[in-house]
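Module 6 notes. Inverse folding takes a fixed backbone as the condition and produces residue identities as the prediction. Think of it as a translation problem where the source language is geometry and the target language is the twenty amino acids. Below is one complete input and output pair. Work through it position by position during the lab.
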């Protein structure tokens, strides 16, 4: 649960602080999340900032109540099943839920990657390309991936230098 909640805090950024150069300040504070949940549930669900911090840091034992799971999922905009904790369902349901959680995790990883400036720059350039150009680019990318799989990435991939500010 701690890892999932941490991921959600990192990905749901405060709209007024999205451009802040400090990644930690872009996130909602525990108090802001607690207050928003109070407002969204019209006071029916109470989660303190201390409780949120304990859960996020992995210090809160046991499972969250259904109303808290629903409130957190609603605030962070994810399916409540994402916050499910193993061991609560029958075996056949566990497998189905695990598969759904893996899909959500993949979507969240993609969202995290899309926040990278170079990825945004590349996607912008792809969107400006013709369908034929995108097909060519796709073939080039696949060739590079095959080459890296065969011989490993080049040393320069540790710190790529792509001009994301200038126009080509």
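Target side of the pair, the amino acids:
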């Amino acid at each position: 649960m701690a890892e999932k909640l941490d991921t959600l805090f990192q990905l749901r950024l405060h709209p007024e602080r999205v451009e802040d150069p400090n990644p930690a300040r872009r996130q909602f504070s525990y108090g802001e999340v607690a207050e928003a949940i109070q407002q969204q549930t019209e006071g029916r669900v109470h989660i303190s900032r201390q409780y949120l911090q304990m859960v996020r840091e992995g210090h809160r034992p046991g499972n969250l109540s259904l109303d808290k799971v629903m409130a957190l999922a609603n605030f962070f905009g994810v399916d409540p099943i994402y916050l499910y904790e193993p061991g609560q369902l029958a075996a056949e349901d566990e497998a189905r839920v695990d598969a759904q959680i893996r899909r959500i995790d993949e979507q969240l990883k993609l969202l995290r990657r899309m926040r990278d400036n170079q990825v945004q720059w590349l996607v912008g350039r792809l969107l400006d390309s013709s369908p034929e150009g995108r097909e060519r680019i796709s073939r080039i990318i696949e060739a590079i991936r095959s080459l890296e799989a065969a011989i490993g990435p080049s040393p320069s991939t540790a710190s790529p230098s792509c001009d994301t500010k200038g126009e080509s």
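Reference fact for the lab report: The chain has eight helices and no strands.
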